[in-house]
Amino acid sequence: MNTTPSAIDIRDLTHRYGRRVALADLTLQIEPGEMFAILGPNGCGKTTLFRLLSTLMRLQSGSVYVLGKQLPQQSDEVRRRIGVVFQSPSLDRKLTVGENLRFQAALYGIRGRALVQRQQELLDHLGLADRIHERTEHLSGGLRRRVELAKGMLHRPSLLLLDEPSTGLDPGARTDLWRYLEWLRDEHQVTVVLTTHLLDEAERADRIAIFSQGRLVALDHPEALKASIGGDSITIRGQDSATLRQAIADRFQVAAKVIDGHVRFEHPDGAQILARVMEAFSDRIQSITLGRPSLEDVFIDKTGHRFWSHGEDDAAT
Amino acid sequence: MMQRPEDTIPDRGGSNDRTTACPWRASITLAWREILRFLRQGSRVVGAIGQPVIFWIFFSAGFDRNFRLEAGSEGQVASFAEYYFPGTLVLILLFTAIFSTISLIEDRREGFLQSVLVAPLPRWSMVLGKVAGGAVLAVIQGGLFLLLALTLPVEFSFWKLVQIAALMLLASLGLTSLGFTIAWRMESTQGFHAIMTVFLMPLWLLSGAFFPVPALAADSTWLQIGLYGIMQVNPLTYTVAGMHQLLYDGPLSSALDLPPMVFCWWVTIVATVLMFFAACWTATGSSRAGP
After folding, report:
1. Does B159 fall in a domain?
2. Which residues of B touch A313 (CB under 8 A)?
3. Which of A277, B80, B152, B180 could be B67's S-S partner, Cβ–Cβ 3.0 to 4.6 Å?
4. What is the C-alpha separation between A66 and A82, in angstroms, rounded?
């Protein structure tokens, strides 16, 4: 019997744009206090899921509970409890940092001493205290993202939803962002749910849901996902990939596939098999690479195509 | 058996001090944001008031000799500058309404309004904030233009100014609501400009702002009859007519054969309320739409 309450509980969720299916029969539970990444290439359905969870779009079918409140019947209750950080800027560029926060506070009924206190706390923690009177149009991308975070956290939500939060940030700003998200999770037990198309970013999450073409194809801890691959990955570029794949599969008894013109397979002892393949087919191989299992390998294993391939429809964000 | 989520989840993390936003207060804040933004974008002032003023000056000079507005034995009762003044005032209100709502198109997809849409507020609160902000700006600009009436034979009184301000405010609320309703459904600002050209400008043009409602006669063409019909059902006709009567209570108003003032008030009020509800309905229904 499962007695653990979920921060997000999704059952049989399907969403269509006209005849095109953006999310297909999704069932997913996200636990309180976890850092959860929704990973997938453009058009995989992750932004649709973000918009549904953030109450920007109405459900078509299936059921969704956010922090125990059902959508869409209890949308207002959900809105009070979640913080949302959008991919595209939601700051008013003509207003100062302080004005943006005050206007956000008005939307949640925060004012007076509570507003001053929360604003100060957030600005101090996010290193924005000396920017309060600066118009946001004059801030760098990293600082603007911090103001977005401050806006999202002003009403002290239990759940923070972020859509592609690293987009447009330099590596330093990305590190800052993640440090802050981890602090929220660890110190304030905030459930953090973010969408991303960056494989290395997703690895920092506690659990990852991998989406492809509107379907959930994998769900687990990053290490567990990579361990499911069954060894190192070998990728070979050759002249006739189909024939080469057949020859390698026959000779070494491995489940080789052709992915985007490359022969690819996994093996528990990558270094040893690499040497043997090279010895046997050196005249037909242009390049060969050996890698530890990555999330892209998981994606390929589950979907049969590479993470960034034309298989995903960009329009289906 | 799996527990129902609503039975099990505890409120956590600061939920005890969670307060509820007052929709009216939020509306005032959003309206104030409109005004602040406006003050920080000088080009918008020029855009909304500049073109109508230029039109008024040039058209007044150009049509001065050809414009005839006679009342019985009194002969010519007004210059074109006088006749066209209330129409220009309404055009300023229309332009300000358009400029304040056109930003919606991008603002709700990639701007500040995204945050408003996920806040625990009724949609009417957001619509009222946006519309009221735009309307206040329109009234201020209309008021500035009204200073030019000092060059015309207009007698002002305090009561007259109050009525003019009230009519401007009502008309601005209606026009901003109309702009909101159109902009909310638009994918691009180019689309809005198209609507402005084929709908909003003709709406103004056929309101008696630029030429009087034609009187029907036995030899009127179908086109004139159609024009008469459109101008009669155009709510803006009654705003312009009301403005004519408030500014000129002498022979000019009687020469134009205008509808009773009380009727002008009522049509403007009803049209404004209907447009506001249309804007609220549009904004509420949109959550069913795609991305």
Report:
1. yes
2. none
3. B80
4. 9
Q: A20: which strand partners?
A: A17
**pLDDT band at residue A14 under the 50/70/90 scheme:** very high
Please give the structure tokens belonging to residue B191. Answer: 């689309």
Residue B290 lies in a domain: no
Task: State the pTM of this model.
Answer: 0.81
User: In chain B, how many domains are there?
Assistant: 1
Q: Are strands A35-39 and A191-196 parallel, antiparallel or unpaired?
A: parallel
A189 contact residues in B (CB cutoff 8 A): 12-13
Cβ-Cβ contacts under 8 Å, A190 against chain B: 13
More confident residue, A187 or B285: A187
The answer to the question of residue B241 being in a domain is yes
Model ipTM value? 0.79
Element spanning A216, H or E: strand A215-220
Give which of A154, A151, A52, A43 is closest to A95, Cα–Cα: A151
Token pair 């087919």: residue: A281
Note whether A3 contacts B3, CB cutoff 8 Å: yes
Residues with pLDDT less than 70, chain B = 1-19, 70-77, 286-291
Q: Looking at residue B286, what is its pLDDT?
A: 53
How far apart CA A75 and CA A66 sit, in angstroms, is: 9
CA end-to-end distance (rounded Å), chain B = 36
Q: Do A90 and B117 touch (CB under 8 A)?
A: no
Range of the domain at B180: 22-285
Question: Rounded mean pLDDT of chain A?
Answer: 86
Q: Region A91-101: what's the mean pLDDT?
A: 91
Burial of A204 (0-12, 13-18, 19+ CB in 10 A): middle
Structural contact between residues A143 and A151, judged by C-beta atoms closer than 8 angstroms: no
CB atoms within 10 A of CB A50: 24
* pLDDT at res. A260: 76
In a domain, B8, yes or no: no
CB A228 within 8 A of CB A217: no
B115 closest CB neighbour out of A151, A156, A190 = A151
Query: Could you tell me how many residues make up chain B?
Result: 291
Q: Order of strands across the sheet with A69-71?
A: A20-30, A8-17, A61-66, A69-71
pLDDT of residue B11: 41
What region, left, alpha or beta, does residue A24 occupy, with left being phi > 0 and alpha being psi -120 to 50 degrees? beta
Omega before A72 within 30 of 0, i.e. cis: yes
| Contact between chains at B13 and A104 (C-beta distance less than 8 A) | no
Q: Average pLDDT in the A254-263 region?
A: 82
φ/ψ of A63, rounded to 5, equals: -125, 145
What is the spatial distance between Cα B109 and Cα B126, in angstroms, rounded to a whole number?
A: 15
